[in-house]
Amino acid sequence: MVIARRNGEGRQEEVGRVFWQGLYFLTAFSVVVFVLSRLFSPAILRLAVSSDEVWQATVEYIRWRDYSFLFAFPLLAIRALFVGTTRTKILTTNAIVMVVCNVVFNYLLIFGHGVFPRMGIGGAALGSSLAGLIGLIFMVVYMRRRVELPRPVFDLRLSLHLLGVSVWTMVRQFFAIVPWFLFFVAIEHLGEVQLAAANVVRSISMIFFVIVNSFAATMISLTGNLIGAGRAAEVMTTSRRVITLNYAVGLPLIGLALALSGSLLRLFTGDAAVVETAFVPMCVMLSTFLISVPAYTWCNTVIGTGKTRAAFIIQMVTIAVYLVYLFALTRLPDIPLALYWTAEQLYVLVMLGLSIWWLRRNRWPWKSSNVNATL
Are the C-beta atoms of 187 and 198 separated by less than 8 Å? Predict the structure, then answer.
């Protein structure tokens, strides 16, 4: 968001300086997260997962997936540069490269082919980590050839300023993964078929989450650029256009997923019982898309204004409501898997309500003096 604001203000030299400080910080942070995950993940998972088989499989997955932190965090800094300067075409190419590599490596490493060993769930994690490494290499090579940046210099004062702005976003993103982890802990008692069905639905949901999040994340950059250019009054109109585009892309895919639900589910599993169990939860998940589009868009609009603390509070309240609802479901007998998936609907409903409330409460658009003071 800081890069977007400086780009909107036409301060290109500052864009480069902000990028380098962000890259330094995220690279160092990736090492810290990698080490902490290696040291403490198995013990934490042991407390949360009762099944030995599930625990062993999860630890095996995380053991290889941890390496992705070392590539994903620097890639976030590079992505922020291109999103903030509204040059996003190369990011689409990079995403395609990573998806293709992910599919190929997963196929080779999960099942084992040629010189590649059969690793099972660990192969899925390693394949994803290798795809992240290739994505990072791809962007570094592109930047060396196509992007002009100022000489990299460490600026402690600027780094501290960025830390002050971004700390709430970092904490918010960290806690954002908690609901999914606790969701699978909550449904563990339903049985292996339900757990497998939930994993299938989760995998399908990622397709639609990528669509929602890609459009919504664009609002952070657009909001910053518009404010920086002195066009804050256009932010809300732009948000509504992003929501419309998101629906235009996502709704036809939802219709296609429903029409071909059986074939889609069988792409992820050949177990007839799992396919049958996953159908209704998948329908609930797809309906959540309708609420997720405006919810994530408006929440990212708040982030784009530079009010990262407000976005953090919105996220925390949303997670708290989600977890209370999820806990209540676990206390009731014979709750079907589909009903557990309504927790996601409640999650995005609360996020949507709080984001709209905050924007209206602060009487957007603000005076230019107020928004420019944030960053």
Answer: yes
